[in-house]
User: What shape does this take?
Amino acid sequence: MKLAPSLHRLGNDIVACYMLDLPDGITLIDAGLPGHWNDLLRELDAVGRPLADVRGLVLTHGDSDHIGFAERLRRETGVPIFIHAADAHRARTSEKPKTAMGPLRLGPTLGFLAYGLRKNAVRTRHVEELVEIDDGHALDLPGAPRIVGLPGHSPGSIAVHVPAVDAVFVGDALTTRHVLTGHTGAQLAPFTDDRAGALASIDQLSQVSASWVLPGHGAPWHGSPVDIAAAIREP
Assistant: This one.
């Protein structure tokens, strides 16, 4: 799905990842679920680019519904997979703290689980080799993505700011659709390790200049980080 020039979304409002189609190559942000591999190949075909044009994949954090096809991409192409150092162990092993599930509604929760089954979530492979990055790094990838630390959902949660497409990719630092309740609108994501830390990170996000805020779950937010941060903080 093309959102804007050079900016594409793979997946849907349940689980999404992103593709940046730039003159010097393709940058991927997150890898969704294993079944999103076919979505990636279709999107590449639609823009007339081969898989060999992918230069790198940046993970916003290490949870299983964001690393989906990362290991397959690495094995088949040798493309580097970048992640914040604080989440590298999570991506390699799937080990993470247990968090309270919180509120849920049966319909949206079953929809989330069913979508995961359709996209082969049970076959997610850990990422064996990772390039560890840190806050403030500017990566040598198409679009020159810059890393903004947003700890809270996980210790190594990041935003990826890409001025070339006027967008910031936030993973699960926030969501615009709660996968367990179906509630829409700007909010913190479920399964967050440290909700107080995640709220504090929203202030860091509001300092980024972009016209798109793109989460891993929920509809794209076509507006500024300042506005979505304010929406999250509304009582």
User: Anything to note?
Assistant: The first helix runs from residue 36 to 46.
